[in-house]
Design a protein that fits this description.
Elements lengths: L7 H7 L6 E8 L4 E3 L8 H7 L4 H12 L1 E4 L5 H10 L4 E6 L2 E6 L7 E6 L3 E6 L8 E6 L4 E6 L6 H11 L1
Parallel strand pairs: 2-3
Antiparallel strand pairs: 1-4, 1-9, 3-9, 4-5, 5-6, 7-8, 8-9
Length: about 170
């Protein structure tokens, strides 16, 4: 989506008067393995008796299929961004010259679901996997990181735009 003219008026209501929007893209969270500071129980006997995989095996399978999508304990920036994404419907990722914002689908000031000062973002990089071209990894200064799907799942152009805008 980049920064189309059709959203300029709406974005002007969301950003601060001296803040400049750089890129706006739809965003979602696809859960893979989440390292959230909990030890995985290895209930081998329970797995053997029931024939179901234990938590460790499920975590390993998620990591192999979808990669690690979240690293960070509850309360970290990545964790709170994940919660904001999974608690809402359609959302947009808005990068400005000063902040990274998650905005609800209506693009109104009261629909800012999450935001952080851009200086708190340590890294923003593409993290594509086999058929998941739109993955972007965002790492924060608190040591947490999250992988977002930017734009359409199979297309990498929106992810490239976000990372290029962040690189400046």
């Amino acid at each position: 989506m980049g920064m189309p003219e059709t959203y300029r008026e709406q974005l002007a209501e969301i950003v601060e008067p001296t803040e400049r929007p750089l890129v706006l893209e739809s965003v979602s969270y696809v859960q893979g393995a989440e390292d959230v500071g909990q030890r995985l129980a290895k209930d081998r006997l329970g797995r053997l008796l029931t024939g179901t995989p234990d938590a460790h095996q499920m975590h390993t399978t998620d990591r192999l299929l979808a990669g690690t999508s979240l690293t960070g304990a509850p309360g970290t920036l990545a964790h709170t961004l994940r919660d904001a994404l999974t608690d809402r419907g359609s959302s947009f990722l808005l990068l400005t010259d000063r902040r990274l914002l998650l905005v609800g689908g209506q693009l109104r000031p009261e629909r800012i679901l999450w935001h952080v000062d851009r200086s708190r973002v340590r890294r923003c990089a593409r993290a594509p996997r086999m058929i998941q071209r739109a993955r972007v990894e965002v790492a924060f200064d608190d040591g947490s990181q999250i992988v977002l799907v930017v734009g359409l799942f199979l297309r990498g152009a929106p992810a490239r735009r976000v990372c290029q805008a962040f690189a400046g």
